Amino acid sequence: MKNKWGCVIASPGACYHFLMSHTAILEWEGREYDHNPKSADWYWALGIVAVAGALASALFGNYLLAALIVIAAFAFALHAAKEPPLHRFRLVERGIFIGDELHLFERMVSFSVLEDVEGTLPPMISIKTESWLSPHLIIPLEGVDANTIYSYLLQHVDEGEHHHTFVDLVAAWLGF
């Protein structure tokens, strides 16, 4: 039987070692992205584009695409309306915790510190991992010393040049 930290209850010494290797070196909180509230006009434009696309698809007999357009527009509207959750980040000896999920250094391919040219946004760490569920992590560094994290990561992970992906650029263009 395991407790919430994944320790086998029958061996408290092993559990103590597990917990000690997960004491936070640095700890901070941040949001995935800045929430930009959308105006009513934005939602109207989304609805008009979605209805036009769905009607055009239906006229050409592609009912599946019409349904997909309506579902995608609904998902965009829901995502635009919600406030991003506040995540807790912890830099530990073996990796980085995002919430309760540990991302091990040995599964990280490379990292890069992304800084805003204008200096209006806090720096972010971009981490490429071997995980197929989360191959690219973006971690905001608001309220924490970016140089300290950079120095610590450099001891464990290779530094690489990271660029914004096409999806990042489209999301920024749409205001997400």
Layout of helices and strands:
Elements: H1 12-20, E1 26-31, H2 40-59, H3 63-81, E2 86-91, E3 95-98, E4 101-104, E5 108-114, E6 124-129, E7 136-140, H4 146-156, H5 166-174
Antiparallel strand pairs: 1-2, 2-3, 3-4, 5-6, 6-7
Helix pairs in contact: 2-3
Properties at a glance:
single chain, alpha+beta
CATH class of the largest domain: Mainly Beta
Secondary structure category: alpha+beta
Report the span from N to C terminus. 42 Å
Shape: elongated
Give me the side-by-side strand order of the main sheet.
Answer: 1-2-3-4
Helix content estimate: 25-40%
Number of strands: 7
Assess the beta-strand content as a share of residues.
15-25%
Q: How is the main sheet built?
A: 4 strands, antiparallel
Radius of gyration: 21 Å
**How many domains make up the 3D coordinates?**
2
Run of helices and strands: HEHHEEEEEEHH
pLDDT averaged over residues? 81
Uncertain segments? 7-20
What is the number of helical segments per DSSP (H or I, 4+ residues)?
A: 5
What is the CATH-assigned architecture of the largest domain?
Answer: Roll
Structure description:
With 176 residues, the chain is α+β, with helices and mostly antiparallel strands. The longest helix is centred in the first third of the chain and has 20 residues, at 40-59. It starts with 11 loop residues before the first helix and ends with a helix. 39% of the residues lie in helices and 22% in strands. The protein has 2 domains: 12-33 and 84-163, Roll (PH-domain like); 40-81. Helix 2 (40-59) runs antiparallel to helix 3 (63-81).
